[in-house]
């Protein structure tokens, strides 16, 4: 983390959440290779399951007027995934600054890293879509 990224760091930052994803035909191109944008879909699922494991769902947050949106993504593609591969997609929460929470994520086949990303999630008011601080109960669950 650089000095520009300095902010609150989650206590469980080293704790890495794992989510298993099977590659289906709908995830691939005609050659059976995962289409690049689908790695982002896999990572979204991992973050949603990470949130669920913390006791929250996207729907419950929406009902409270809170929406979590992607602010920015930096992704590197290192190796292709193929039809029927079983992937592990990780989500590790890192720096928390105001309305933004940064995740480090990877898609792996066994020990091979196929894709790695830094995803910044913003907490916004569901009506105005303006940034807002993370609510207390969610911060407590995130162990800030």
TrEMBL record:
This protein's record includes keyword Iron-sulfur: no
Pfam families (UniProt xref): 4HBT_2
Keyword vocabulary terms for this entry: Hydrolase
Similarity-based family: Belongs to the 4-hydroxybenzoyl-CoA thioesterase family.
Name used for this protein in its record: Tol-pal system-associated acyl-CoA thioesterase
């Amino acid at each position: 983390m650089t000095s520009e990224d300095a902010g609150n760091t989650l206590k469980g930052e080293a704790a890495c959440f794992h989510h298993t994803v099977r590659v289906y035909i709908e995830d691939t191109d005609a050659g059976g290779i995962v289409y690049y944008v689908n790695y982002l879909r896999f990572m979204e699922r991992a973050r949603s399951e990470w949130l669920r494991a913390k006791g929250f769902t996207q729907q419950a947050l929406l009902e409270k007027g809170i929406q979590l949106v992607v602010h920015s993504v930096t992704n590197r593609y290192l190796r292709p995934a193929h039809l029927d591969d079983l992937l592990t997609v990780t989500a590790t929460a890192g720096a928390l600054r105001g309305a933004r929470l940064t995740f480090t994520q990877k898609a792996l086949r066994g020990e091979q890293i196929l894709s790695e990303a830094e995803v910044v999630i913003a907490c916004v008011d569901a009506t105005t879509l303006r940034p807002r601080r993370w609510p207390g109960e969610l911060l407590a669950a995130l162990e800030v």
